[in-house]
Amino acid sequence: MATPDAEAGCFGPSGLVVSCVRRANGRLWIRVIGDLDAIETAEFHAQVWPLLTRPTRCIELDLAGMGFCDAAGGRELLRLFRGAAQQKINLVVVAAHPVVEFVLGVIGGFSL
To answer: For residue 6, what are the contacts with CB-CB under 8 A and spacing of at least 6?
Structure first.
């Protein structure tokens, strides 16, 4: 397993936690804990979008700790998938809370 070369954790206004581990092989693991709703989307965007840069080739998105995702949160996740694709970064959801998995399926057919 590659050794992480950077770790970060960020807290949004009502408790959203975004943490990441950047690995030397161009992979980035991002874990999101908390609710992604209209209040939290700006914080989520501010913390995650700057990570959509080279040398990142693949993002593994862990949403198992995200217990709620409203329409605004769903739109932000869809934007994230599209932004990653534009940067030629493979974005894979490696885990999701059942509610979030349902939202992902509704907004674009994403599945685990």
So the answer is: 20, 21, 22
Which residue do the tokens 């934007």 mark?
A: 79
Rounded Cα distance, 26 and 48, in Å: 16
Residue in this structure with the two tokens 């869809």, named with its chain if needed: 78
**Domain CATH number, residue 49:** 3.30.750.24
Q: Average pLDDT for consecutive 10-residue bins of the chain (112 residues)?
A: 45 74 90 94 92 89 94 92 93 92 79 54
* Total number of domains constituting the chain: 1
Q: Could you list the residue range(s) of the whole structural domain that residue 15 is in?
A: 4-108
**Which phi and psi (to 5°) does residue 24 adopt?**
-65, -20
Q: Does this model's pTM top 0.70?
A: yes
Question: What pLDDT does 5 receive?
Answer: 46
